[in-house]
Amino acid sequence: MHFINLRARPNVQNRLKHYREANGWSQGELARRLGVSRQTINAVETDKYDPSLPLALRMARLFGVGVPELFIDHWEPEA
Questions:
Q1: What is the pTM of this model?
Q2: Is 2 left (phi over 0), alpha (psi -120 to 50) or beta?
Q3: Which of 32, 63, 68, 69 has its CA 20 to 30 A from that of 76?
Q4: Does the pLDDT value for residue 28 go beyond 60?
């Protein structure tokens, strides 16, 4: 699995933990449902890494939300 370092994108608000806990799932349960490791879920939730686009799409579909609701990007282009 390929990740992008979030330190280069500090304006992204990650809401994965919020949605996971709202469903009453552990990191392990979410990982099982998505077909990834618990460590992957932990890395995404702790803002160490962004998920790949296919994984972000699966996460959003699982929670019934759009990717922009799961990962809110507050970046603004420079004028």
A1: 0.81
A2: beta
A3: 63
A4: yes
